[in-house]
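Q: What structure does this chain adopt?
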Amino acid sequence: MFMLRPKTLQLEVTNDCNSNCSICMRVTSKRRVGYISLDDFLRIPLENFKEVAFHGWGEPLLHPELFEMVKIASDKGVMTSLITNGTILDKKIDEILNSNLDSIAFGIFTTRGKEKVFENIREFAKRNKSIKTFIDITVLPENLEDIKRIISFAGENGLDGVVLHKLFYTHNPSLIPPSNERIKLASKVAKEAGKDYGIKVYTPPKQTRPCAVAISCIFLSWDSIASPCCFLHEMGFHYPDLSFSKHRKFLLEMKKNEICKKCPW
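A:
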């Protein structure tokens, strides 16, 4: 059981960000802010993975060598993806379109104050010919109408899909998570909107332990510290190295982990 290696390396190229979202773990983070060096990136055994997902607790487009890293991974036959808040997308469109990036996702959980982000995505969608494009939405108690509007925007602009996520909140008692009923309602509303606007909607999967994220992924921070996932990393659960054997051991013992027991994912 769990003898396969994780297929995806979730790589945090930086934990620096130009936004201050209330639901982000950066709000309570005590880590120093930094950027992975190209030398450290070159030491990563990329050939052990099928995909490198360039995202963590920061805005990857801030890294000046991001697309050099994308090219290096792509040249090794590794798929590449990233998640961005979209705020500086207009300044990076040419670099993105000229890169070998396979997919990009835009993290948006509200429509308020996001006019510039939507305009950036609209322009990107007009010029994009080959990169798979998604919007990631964190389900909150109050953003049901936002979800419908975001899905309509994605469909009207020819994006490839919308992904709904649950809110990770165990690190911050001030966050109010949506109820299970609200998540079910949001998923239903999203799927209906997806049909109306002709776009694929991915809703939160049924919770399992070990979770699907930890089975398929392993996380590496900008300062080369590994963890089973980005949430556990921020809460102090680390591996001494990027070890698949330790990851398998963690999966077998995951049901006993106190953080995992409270995790909504």
